[in-house]
Specification:
heterodimer; A: alpha/beta; Glutaredoxin; Rossmann fold; Ubiquitin-like (UB roll); 4 domains; 5-stranded mixed beta sheet; 4-stranded mixed beta sheet; about 15% strand; globular; B: alpha+beta; Alpha-Beta Plaits; 2 domains; 10 strands
Chain lengths: ~550, ~240
């Protein structure tokens, strides 16, 4: 496969498309599929045939606004329809060359206008399983550009200059990591894509893998060229069957087109990817546990150093990046590092995909430039808290992150800013809570999550999270005392400072951040035996007090 | 086990200048120089897992605590093995262990010969602030010579490692997650029906009364976990 051949495929895909006057894109993400968007697509196709309309019906990946699904986008008109069911098919088909169907129209300008799509540029626009679609939107061009015109060092330099930081949560500079693996000695090296997304309320990686899997494969191949690897693994949760099946078919297509395998782009570069399924352990998102799991061992972390960059999979130098990080690579190579570095804030470049969930009007996937205010994400893009309720807190970073109150909403979203106020960027889960949420109960929920997901290897995480959960449960049932609170704070410090891996080290964060911003709620539970949100059942305790 | 190189490093542990081979761990060097660092999962002769977190030390220039058993020495490193912060964390970790399962020293076969008990005494642990979890755990007495009392297990995995690495049988392993972890024989069969070779190494290396010899109790039951370096040396000599 050469660039010319790539151009040919793109041109024929485009001319194929030009035969149609309209394109009807039907979202086939997990959210919309669960509401039978596949049947919607079928009925639209039938209706078009019956009416003799000239339109192309395409299944696409996630369009982002999951709360309004199933979604249908009609091009070139650009009408977006929400909550579509098969009975609407005829109306939609009839509306072509006429006025759009008004009662189905989704008018959420502000939701889309504030977003910048890099990772999600193809999501909801292409058929994820048609490699021709991906190639027609400049897919695999970056890989062939890198192989033909750039040295591996040049690729690393470009990624370094772009300022891209790991999107898995830690924010480690991607270029630095690639450079370290590239310099590591060893004839065999590996590239791993971490798709073991497990934070409650997070579905960024799933959507990327479902909507644009080729983009991730292309990013991995470029990374492999840069660091000198010839074998890659994608570690995906088994709970993401759609992502796995789309990845499997994309791998087959990429191999068939000579974009994976031997002598890619008629060069000496060989690279192939295998899929590995996670068996439901959250801790396997930690890189050393993930590596152990790929090797077929029990998925538990090990102390670092040695870092995977020098001794990773089967003791070989290994590059391990998150799905979203790999999804950023191709655009950076294609458009240049300066373009990428021009987006975002001073020390956090580019965009970040967030999964907006909880008490928010526009639940779904958004991609925003770094540096945007939390308030803008929640109130403008997210449409605010529904049902006349009052905003209380936003939880970022999943069980490793923290809860931020209203007063913190004006900080710009970046790795450093979020960390400085007691939360983290994390992988991109963003859970909005209103006045019906009890912050003590929220802290208890996340502690329960960490307790059940702790691998059990090191003492502070295994026994510490369980103890904190017991003590938080005491407070939630009205049996807590101020001594318990002091004990919790003590345990937070030990678990944070002494745990072996990131899971334990960050497990106290939800407790610490709620104690920082919502301490009065803890005190109310303990002293007044009162839960202002009415979540915790404290009747028995309150009676004793009376 | 760390690879011992020929290069010599000089470092400072607790304000004492010490020399070490490149590749040695902080813990090895400290022990050579009679500097005591508390450990539970560490045992000379087995691989290091860094799981008990008791051997954490402070290294000048880093705010993070570092496990001494898996950290190799660097030239000019300044290590502190004792501080208020370290003692506080070590005591909390011991409290967590005592409260996790049913550690009742007075009726334990290892009373007086227990590493957990000794560490508690050493760190002056007079009481446990945390609520005892009192889990309902089984005792496996199916083996003709040994007993596994899960109430006393601290999941240090010494038995798992000695069985896999020294005996080469890999009968023991860990099952489950978090507080529900348990050591198991084979695929969670009874010890007596497992592929156990009856060598008894796991019993000797167990730091508490979790694995014990059926024929002995209490004061008759000291364990001798220090045979491993000698065994390894004799094997290498062959």
């Amino acid at each position: 496969m050469t660039i010319e051949e790539l151009d040919q495929i793109a041109a024929s895909a485009r001319s194929e498309r030009e035969k149609f006057e309209h394109e009807i894109n039907v979202c086939h993400g997990t959210g919309c599929l669960s509401q039978h968007s596949d049947r919607v697509k079928e009925s639209i196709a039938q209706a078009l045939q019956a009416l003799g309309k000239n339109a192309y019906v395409r299944r696409t990946g996630c369009m982002g606004l999951c709360a309004a699904g199933p979604l249908v986008l009609v091009d070139p008109e650009g009408s977006l329809y929400q909550h579509v069911n098969p009975s609407h098919a005829e109306k939609i088909a009839a509306s072509l060359d006429d006025k759009p169907v008004e009662e189905l129209q989704c008018n959420l300008r502000e939701h889309f206008d504030q977003q910048v799509h890099i990772v999600l540029e193809n999501s909801g626009r292409i058929d994820p399983e048609r490699v021709e679609d991906y190639i027609a939107s400049d897919g695999y061009r970056a890989l062939l550009m890198a192989l033909n015109d750039m040295t591996p060092q040049g690729v690393v330099r470009q990624i370094t200059e772009s300022g891209l930081r790991g999107r898995g949560g830690g924010g480690y500079p991607t270029g630095l990591k690639w450079g370290t693996v590239a310099k590591a000695k060893g004839d065999v090296k590996y590239v791993i894509c971490n798709g073991d997304e497990g934070d409650p309320g997070a579905f960024m990686d799933r959507s990327v893998l479902e909507s644009d899997p080729h983009r991730v494969l292309e990013g991995m191949a470029i990374a492999a060229y840069a660091v000198g690897a010839s074998k890659g693994y994608i570690y995906v949760r088994a709970e993401y069957p759609l992502a796995v099946s789309r990845l499997t078919s994309c791998l087959r297509d990429a191999r068939r087109h000579g974009l994976l395998g031997n002598n890619i782009g008629n060069t000496h570069f060989n690279f192939d990817v295998e899929i590995r399924l996670g068996a439901g352990a959250f801790v396997c998102g930690e890189e050393t546990a993930l590596i152990a799991s790929i090797e077929g061992r029990r998925g538990t972390p090990r102390p670092r150093p040695p870092y995977p960059a020098s001794s990773g999979l089967w003791g070989k130098p290994t590059l391990i990046n998150n799905v979203e990080t790999f999804a950023n690579i191709a655009p950076i190579i294609r458009k240049g590092s300066r373009w990428f570095a021009g987006i975002g804030s001073a020390r956090s470049k580019g965009t970040k995909v967030f999964a907006l969930t909880g008490k928010i009007t526009n639940t779904g996937l958004v991609e925003v430039p770094m540096g945007i205010k939390l308030r803008e994400i929640i109130e403008v893009i997210g449409g605010g808290v529904p049902g006349g309720h009052k905003f209380k807190a936003v939880q970022t970073g999943g069980p490793s992150g923290g809860c931020l109150p209203e007063s913190m909403l004006d900080i710009g979203v970046s790795y450093d800013a979020l960390q400085s106020v007691g939360s983290i960027m994390g992988s991109g889960g963003m859970i909005v809570m209103d006045d019906t949420s009890c912050m003590v109960n929220v802290a208890r929920f996340f502690m329960e999550f960490c307790m059940t997901e702790s691998c059990g290897k090191c003492v502070p995480c295994r026994a510490g999270t369980a103890q904190m959960h017991t003590l938080l449960t005491r407070i939630c049932t009205g049996a807590g005392t101020m001594d318990d609170l002091a004990l919790i704070e003590d345990l937070c410090s030990t678990v944070k400072e002494t745990s072996l891996c990131g899971l334990g080290q960050t497990a106290p964060n939800p407790v610490l951040s709620t104690l920082k911003y919502f301490r009065n709620e803890y005190i109310e539970h303990i002293v007044e035996k009162r839960c202002r949100a009415g979540v915790c059942n404290m009747e028995a305790a309150a009676e004793v007090l009376a | 086990m760390s690879e011992v190189g020929t290069e010599v490093k000089i470092l400072v542990i607790d304000e004492q200048e010490v020399s070490a081979h490149a590749g040695q761990t902080i813990l090895e060097v400290a022990r050579e120089n009679d500097i005591h660092i508390p450990t539970l999962c560490y045992l000379e002769g087995l691989s290091n897992v860094g799981a008990c977190r008791l051997c954490l030390v402070e290294i000048k220039g880093s705010s993070k605590l570092t496990p001494a058993c898996v950290t190799t020495v660097q030239e000019g490193m300044e290590v502190s093995t004792n501080s208020e912060r370290l003692t506080r964390h070590r005591r909390t970790i011991l409290e967590l262990l005592f409260a996790e399962r049913n550690h009742i020293c007075s009726v334990c076969v290892a009373n007086g010969h227990c590493e957990l008990q000794s560490l508690g005494q050493e760190l002056g642990l007079t009481h446990v602030r945390l609520p005892y979890r009192n889990p309902d755990l089984p005792v496996d007495a199916s083996h003709e010579r040994f007993t596994a009392d899960h109430n006393r297990c601290i999941l240090c995995t010494r038995c798992v490692r000695v069985c896999a690495e020294i005996e080469g049988a890999h009968v023991w392993d860990v099952m489950g997650r978090g507080v529900n972890c348990t050591i198991i024989t084979d695929l969670h069969e009874e010890w007596g029906k497992s592929t156990c070779t009856r060598c008894g190494k796991c019993v000797q290396v167990c730091p508490t009364g979790a694995l014990f010899d059926k024929s002995k109790i209490g004061s008759e039951h000291p364990k001798y976990p220090d045979f491993l370096p000698f065994l390894n040396m004799m094997r290498e000599a062959q």
